[in-house]
Amino acid sequence: MAGMLEYKCPCCDGAIQFDSTTQKMKCPYCDTEFEVDALKGYDEDLKDQKPSKMNWTTPGGSWAEGETAGLHTYVCKSCGGEIVGDDTMAASACPFCGNPIVLTGQFAGDLRPDLIIPFKLDKKAAKAKLQEHLKGKTLLPKVFRSQNHIDEIKGVYVPFWLYDSDADAQLRFTATRTRFWSDDDYNYTETSYYSVRRDGVLGFDAVPVDGSSKMEDDLMESIEPFTMSDAVPFKTAYLAGYVADKYDVDAQKSIQRANERIRQSTEDAFTQTVTGYDSVKMENSSIQLHGGKAKYALFPVWVLSTSWQGNNYIFAMNGQTGKFVGNLPVDKAAARKWTLGLTVAVGAASYAVMWLLWLAGIL
Length: 363
Description:
By secondary structure, the protein is α+β, with helices and mostly antiparallel strands. Helices cover about 25% and strands about 35% of the residues. The chain folds into 3 domains: about 1-50, no CATH class; about 50-330, no CATH class; about 330-363. The protein has 7 helices and 15 strands. The mean pLDDT is about 75. This is DNA-directed RNA polymerase subunit P.
């Protein structure tokens, strides 16, 4: 059964109809008219339009015999966080919520990482960056400034899925150019509408999506980028002195986020090529991925978790580049004292000025 083809008016999004009187396409809502020939190219674009197809081949590496002999699994009973460490791991607190972690036994199962980016910045650098971040914040609760607490910052290898693919994209835009002029009687405005098409292929390498539900996506994306030229084949020796978060969001479940990032990057790249117009609006985007595959990697992150008044605050620093992010609360009691002190100081200063003016005989 043939489908009904509908043209939308670029001015008001109403359905355009053929007007037998003018022999033109006309919008019944805003009365804008279009030449029939002008819509031929648009018609061809609609016929060529394809649905997006974004499929992936997910990773499936396995551990070699004896490779996990020195690795142990630890579980936080409070938040459910599960981390992996070797025999040298001294951590006894969860890096995600700060509560005690319990050794549950020998590490087993799960996929073997393909790549790892080793830590470039040590704990001293991470502490210095955190102290710099806290500097000058007078209304910060004291627990955040405690040296003992800052010493609890931990180096964590966070699981990431890395997606490689070529994106074959077809995008259609509606663009406008507007000109204005006047005569003795009227002011005129003429708006010209254009259908603009962009086709092309973009290559994506190592689009990262974190595989840990304990680490918010926006937090991990905020400390990007990670430099992939430093990535090396995974070896358990790199875990010495650090902990590794076990992924609990697998590659299949992470595909949606990878597709969102690829789609947004593709649309942004092609939109930037549509220039010379007064306005540009994307009408349709079709993306087909070719050769999509994913790899499993561990990225270095310094993490400090702080609980305060029932809320958990996580600070994260890229262990490769030093980029640091984290939200800070305000101690409301300290804020009230500060406001009261400021009010008293301003009042005292005002009284002193009035008194001096009185002594000078001005008042």
